[in-house]
Amino acid sequence: MATYTLDWGLGFFASFNATSPQYIAYDYLVRIPWQYTLNLGLSYTSPDKHWVGRLWVWNVTDQHNWMTSGSGYATSFANYEQLMVSWSLWVQGQVSYQF
User: Fold this and answer.
1) Residue 8 region by backbone torsions, left for phi larger than 0, else alpha for psi between -120 and 50, else beta
2) For the whole model, what pTM was predicted?
3) What is the DSSP string of 25-91?
4) How many domains does the chain have?
5) CB atoms within 10 A of CB 15
6) Is the sign of the CA dihedral 11, 4, 61, 32 positive or negative?
7) Are 63 and 85 contacting, i.e. CB atoms less than 8 angstroms apart?
8) pLDDT tens for residues 26-77?
9) Which domain holds residue 62?
10) What is the rounded distance in angstroms from the CA atom of residue 22 to the CA atom of residue 72?
11) Distance in angstroms (rounded) separating the CA atoms of residues 65 and 19
Protein backbone atom coordinates (compact mmCIF):
# COMPACT_ATOMS: atom_id res chain seq x y z
CA MET A 1 0.00 0.00 0.00
CA ALA A 2 1.23 3.48 -0.79
CA THR A 3 -0.21 6.92 -0.05
CA TYR A 4 0.97 10.40 -0.88
CA THR A 5 -0.58 13.77 -0.06
CA LEU A 6 0.41 17.07 -1.64
CA ASP A 7 0.83 20.19 0.52
CA TRP A 8 -2.41 21.69 -0.75
CA GLY A 9 -4.56 18.71 0.29
CA LEU A 10 -4.81 16.37 -2.71
CA GLY A 11 -3.88 12.81 -1.87
CA PHE A 12 -3.36 9.57 -3.77
CA PHE A 13 -3.73 5.97 -2.63
CA ALA A 14 -2.76 2.66 -4.23
CA SER A 15 -2.76 -0.89 -2.91
CA PHE A 16 -2.01 -4.26 -4.44
CA ASN A 17 -3.00 -7.60 -2.97
CA ALA A 18 -1.83 -10.94 -4.35
CA THR A 19 -3.06 -14.32 -3.15
CA SER A 20 -1.26 -17.59 -3.77
CA PRO A 21 -3.17 -20.72 -4.84
CA GLN A 22 -5.32 -22.29 -2.15
CA TYR A 23 -7.29 -25.49 -1.95
CA ILE A 24 -10.97 -25.08 -1.20
CA ALA A 25 -11.54 -28.42 0.51
CA TYR A 26 -9.61 -31.04 2.43
CA ASP A 27 -9.66 -33.50 -0.48
CA TYR A 28 -7.16 -31.29 -2.43
CA LEU A 29 -9.03 -31.77 -5.72
CA VAL A 30 -9.96 -28.16 -6.51
CA ARG A 31 -7.91 -25.07 -5.83
CA ILE A 32 -8.19 -21.37 -6.47
CA PRO A 33 -5.33 -20.15 -8.73
CA TRP A 34 -3.07 -17.14 -8.18
CA GLN A 35 -5.12 -13.95 -8.11
CA TYR A 36 -4.59 -10.26 -7.47
CA THR A 37 -6.47 -7.03 -6.85
CA LEU A 38 -5.33 -3.46 -7.58
CA ASN A 39 -7.07 -0.58 -5.76
CA LEU A 40 -6.66 3.17 -6.35
CA GLY A 41 -8.01 6.25 -4.63
CA LEU A 42 -8.04 10.03 -4.36
CA SER A 43 -8.60 12.26 -1.36
CA TYR A 44 -8.87 15.96 -0.67
CA THR A 45 -8.49 17.70 2.68
CA SER A 46 -9.70 21.30 3.02
CA PRO A 47 -7.14 23.97 4.01
CA ASP A 48 -8.66 24.21 7.52
CA LYS A 49 -8.29 20.39 7.88
CA HIS A 50 -11.97 19.97 8.82
CA TRP A 51 -13.45 18.55 5.61
CA VAL A 52 -12.09 15.41 3.98
CA GLY A 53 -13.41 13.79 0.81
CA ARG A 54 -12.27 10.39 -0.42
CA LEU A 55 -12.98 8.35 -3.53
CA TRP A 56 -11.80 4.76 -3.91
CA VAL A 57 -11.90 2.53 -6.96
CA TRP A 58 -11.60 -1.07 -5.83
CA ASN A 59 -10.44 -3.86 -8.16
CA VAL A 60 -9.41 -1.43 -10.91
CA THR A 61 -8.34 -4.23 -13.27
CA ASP A 62 -11.78 -5.89 -12.90
CA GLN A 63 -10.32 -9.27 -11.90
CA HIS A 64 -12.87 -12.01 -11.28
CA ASN A 65 -11.27 -13.44 -8.17
CA TRP A 66 -12.62 -16.24 -6.01
CA MET A 67 -13.40 -16.01 -2.30
CA THR A 68 -14.08 -18.75 0.20
CA SER A 69 -16.27 -18.38 3.22
CA GLY A 70 -15.64 -21.83 4.63
CA SER A 71 -15.19 -22.24 8.35
CA GLY A 72 -11.93 -24.19 8.10
CA TYR A 73 -13.12 -26.76 10.62
CA ALA A 74 -12.73 -30.49 9.98
CA THR A 75 -16.51 -30.83 9.74
CA SER A 76 -16.40 -28.64 6.61
CA PHE A 77 -14.72 -31.34 4.50
CA ALA A 78 -16.00 -29.99 1.19
CA ASN A 79 -16.42 -26.21 1.09
CA TYR A 80 -17.54 -26.12 -2.55
CA GLU A 81 -20.87 -24.53 -1.70
CA GLN A 82 -19.03 -21.75 0.16
CA LEU A 83 -17.05 -20.57 -2.87
CA MET A 84 -18.10 -17.31 -4.54
CA VAL A 85 -16.85 -14.81 -7.08
CA SER A 86 -15.64 -11.58 -5.48
CA TRP A 87 -16.95 -8.21 -6.58
CA SER A 88 -15.69 -6.83 -9.83
CA LEU A 89 -14.79 -3.14 -10.10
CA TRP A 90 -16.69 -0.90 -7.68
CA VAL A 91 -16.47 2.69 -6.47
CA GLN A 92 -16.82 3.94 -2.91
CA GLY A 93 -16.87 7.52 -1.63
CA GLN A 94 -16.80 9.28 1.71
CA VAL A 95 -17.16 12.84 2.93
CA SER A 96 -16.36 13.56 6.58
CA TYR A 97 -16.09 16.53 8.90
CA GLN A 98 -13.38 16.40 11.55
CA PHE A 99 -13.40 18.63 14.59
Assistant:
1) alpha
2) 0.75
3) BTT-S-EE--EEEEEEEEEEE-TTS-EEEEEEEESTT----EEE----STT--B-GGGEEEPP-SEE
4) 1
5) 14
6) negative
7) no
8) 777 778 889 999 999 999 999 999 999 999 999 999 988 887 665 555 555 5
9) 2-97
10) 12
11) 10
